[in-house]
Each structure stands twice: as structure tokens, then as C-alpha cells.
Amino acid sequence: MTVREGNLEAPTRHALDWRNPDFYNEESLLKELERIFDICHGCRRCVSLCTAFPTLFDLVDGSETTEVDGVKKADYWKVVDQCYLCDLCYMTKCPYVPPHPWNLDFPHTMLRAKAIKFSKGEFKFRDKLLSSTDAMGKLASIPVVVKAVNASLKSPAMRGVLDKALGIHKDRVLPDYDSAKFRATAKPDASFQVQNGQRTPGKVAIYATCYINYNEPGIGHDLLKILAHNEIPAMLVEKEVCCGMPKLELGDLDTVEKHKDINIPVLARLAREGYAILSAVPSCTLMFKQELPLMFPDDAEVQAVKEAIWDPFEYLMARNADGLLKTDFKRSLGKVAYHAPCHQRVQNIGSKTRDLLAKVPGTQITAIERCSGHDGTWGVKREYFANSMKIVKPVAKLAAGADYVSSDCAIAGRHILQGMGETVTRKLHPISLICLAYGL
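Given the sequence above, the corresponding C-alpha cells read:
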């Protein structure tokens, strides 16, 4: 066999064999980690992506042998804890992913390690709480509760308590909750005639996501305005729960399956009926596009949803290619610092958001393709907050001087704004920016 230096082929992904008993075999995992860490140590191409790789290389360089065999196995978990499953190493950097014979899948090996930790009960109450986005949202957005919750999230005294009791860093800016939940207040318009394009279905179903439903419903309302402006009939997904990404990142794969069993039958029916299913949170879209299909490769309904789910800008730009998108923009957006989030970049759809923003006359875009460092619940936690602020520094520097900082990942946008410090720059989601440009 010829050993190649790297790949020239596009990366492919193997199914996640999470039901195999060996998946939870810690000895087997440690052998695979040693193999992968040795390859990564010899390459070091991913050193700038996140803090997982510098942690690994510092462990290697500080060992007696200055090789992976000198690193204590117990220290492997320090690398695992720094990985937040952004997937960028696999999709953009690593030359040894399949079909290369070395078959290196760093993120899914980290996921396996997290699943083993979770199965052993090695997680904090905080981690389970933060990953229960639906339950937290339902409780915190109750009208009689929401004001107290939002006030407490801004109270230095209460944040100090949360820091000490739960390990939620006192300085992390957290999103407000909104009692006017998106699913309860949305008024989708399904009255337009369906116009299918060569590339796009002519009718849309909105998967709200926990964040838009409970925290920033305005993003969902603006998406509905854009669809109505373009005379695209829209509806809400009849029933939904969390996509499962927070539980995946925790390693709680059984709960991921429970969420899948609720979501997929509803979404698969819509897919069969010819709807484009739009999800305005990249992590949720990626969950249905990649992670669930890899966890359940033989589930025909999961695969059908994979083919039907769209990033909103992926859909809008495909609609534009079909000659069915209006570009009658009435207002310039000025200087926009646009951040492309990791979980959108790894969907391999290209820079669709930037491309549509660029169609707005008089708009100057600074495109930023670097991780913001918030990464789901990771940057909220006390032990990772400093690293998250370190990662966001170069992103915040690139965004300086913009009228708007904007990211398809709403929490990344908020994190970048926090990294910028005192600023006159406003945070506005790209969907809301397009709504603004249309004059809606």
C-alpha cells in the first residue's frame, strides 16, 4: 500500500457506530486517541483552530519523550474537554480524513470520548442543565417568570451566585428570554401560489429552534416577512423539540435519539410533501444534515429530512438562481462585519449569507471566517470562558468599526460584540439585516 502524504479527494464521513458495544470501551478509545494524537502531533496543521490542539501539543512537548508516548493517558481527557465539536478540523484542515487510509476523524473520536464520560456519570449538573435548552426555555419564558429571570441574568450579585454554585461564568453575557415565544406568536402566510424552481421547492416549513422560539423570536418573524415579501407560502413545523445538538456535545446520545424520535416523523412527512424545511440556527441545521444521518444511516426518514433541510440563505440564494428571489432592496446596510459560523461553514454550502448581503446596494462587507469561540454552551462555562474570550479576540478586531456585527449563529454574534467591548456597533442577525434592506 502506498502511504500518501495527504488527500486530494473531498472528505467523506463514516457512519457513527455508536450502538457497537466497543464504542464505549475505554481501553479501545485510548488506543485510538493515541493513534490520532500521534498523527496530529506529526502534522500540527490545526494548531490555530481551537484550544484542543494547543493543549495536545503542549502535553506532548512537555512530556519526557516529547512524543505522544510520553503523555499520560489520564491527560488525554484534557484534550477532549477542550473540543467543542465545531468540525472545522475535519472539513477544512485535516489531510488525513477518509478516504485517506489513515482514516482520521478527530471530532467523532472526541464525541466518542464524551459519550464514554457521560456513560460513566462524569458530568456536572450544570452541563445537563445548559444542554436542556427546551426545558430551560419553557420555564424561563413563562410570563410571570421571564422578567425575574432576565433581571437575574444581569444582576452582578446573582451572576456571582451562579458562578459559584453552577460554574456559569459571571462575566458571560447571556441572552434574554422572551415570553412572546415565536411558535406562539408567528403568523406564517401560506396563501401564496406555490412556484417551484429548478433548484428549490416553492413552499417552506420553518423549524423554529429553541433559541429563536425562546430567546430571539424576532429572527423568526423577520424570516417570515422575507418569505412573504417573496410570495413563498410558509408554515411552522407542526411539532418540534430541541434538535439534539446540545445533548450530542454532552455525549448524551440516548437523549439525542429520543429527540430524533419526536422530530423526524413530523419533518419527514413535510419532506415527502415537498416542503423546504428551513432552520435559522446553523447547529440545528447541521444536526439534521449531518449528525443524525451519521448516527442513523439506515433510517430512511432521517435521510429524507437530510435532503429537505436548508440553511435559510442557502435556500434564498438557490431561489435567486431560480430567478424567483426579489432584490428590490430599499436601504443600504453600511459596513457589515459578517461572521460565518463553524457549523454553517462545514455544511459545504458556500458563502450564501455573504452573497445575499452583498446584493444590497451600498453595503460594505467584511467577511470573517474564524471561530468565535462561544461554541454552544462551552464558552458559558467558568473553566472555558477565558479561552473563549481569547479565541474571539482576532474576530472582534476584524469587526471593529462596522455599523453591524452579524452572524448566522446568534450567540456567536453576541459573543463577538462582547469581545469588542464598549462599542457603537449593533448586533443584528443576517436575516434581520435582509429584512431591514427590503424595508420591511
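The first strand starts at residue 204 and ends at 207. Try to locate this feature in the C-alpha cell string yourself.
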